[in-house]
Every structure is written in structure tokens, then in C-alpha cells.
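Weekly modeling sync, notes
Attendees: S.R. (lead), two postdocs, one rotation student

Agenda item 3: backlog of single-chain predictions. S.R. asked that every request posted to the team notebook include the full sequence so nobody has to chase files. The rotation student volunteered to paste the first one in as an example of the format we agreed on. Action items at the bottom.

Example entry:
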Amino acid sequence: MAYDELLANRVREALSEQPMVEEVKMFQGMCFMVNDKMCICLRDQGLLCRIGSEQSAIELEKDNCRQMVHGGRVMKDFVYVDIENLQTTKDFDHWINLSLQFNKVAKSSKKKKS
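Predicted structure, as returned to the notebook:
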């Protein structure tokens, strides 16, 4: 599992005010679940942000992220943001805020029965 621990600490700090945050190993990295919903994941040298399909389309046009493709399938709610686009506090906060904003309306994934 490869992810940037300094970036993970930045995300932890940014989410510290959220009432319900859980860290889960997923997607060959670390995912932060907010209110039982996947919100932000760390993988390699960047973030996987769940921002919704409408916001993803807007951000993809700005050329500051790339679409998530999983198993050959486009995941419209998710974008990858490389570390180069997270250098300033303003840029980092932008992605955190978009992820938290969508988290409020995102559907929770179905719990697997044991």
C-alpha cells in the first residue's frame, strides 16, 4: 500500500472537524470515510476525490485532475488529483471542500452481509 504519509496527515487535519471519520485500506491506498461514505482516498502521490459527476465534468475541463477508471469502467463521481495540483493550501482546500460538499448528498455504499 503506497501513499504519501505527509499528504495523509494533511487530509487527517483537514477532516478533523468532521464528526464521523474512519480510515479504511482500499484501492491500494488509504480511504477516508466521512459519515460512512467514501470521501477521499490517498494513493501513490495524490488524492482520489469523490466530488460527483457534475463537478467532475467541470474540474476535468480545467485540466487539473483526471477521471477515475476502475476495471475498465469510468467512475463518474471520482477524479484523481496529482500531488502537483495540491501544493498550495488554496488548491488542497479546494479538493477537500468539493469532496466534503458532495459527501453531504452522496449515497452510502451498501453494507456487505457477513
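Discussion: group reviewed the output briefly. The chain has three helices and six strands.
Action items: rotation student to repeat for the remaining queue; S.R. to check formatting next week.
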